[in-house]
Amino acid sequence: MKAKLVAAQPKGFTLIELLVVLVLLGLISSIAVVSVGVNNQSRELENEVRRMHALMRLAAEEAILQNQEYGFYIDNEGYDFLIYDDVDNSWTASQGESLRSRELPEWLTIELTRDNEAKSLAVKDDDKEKKPLLLFLSSGESTPHTLRFFIDNQESRAFYIESDGFSDIVLRTPKESSED
Question: What structural domains and CATH numbers belong to the chain?
Answer without folding.
Answer: 15-179 (3.55.40.10)
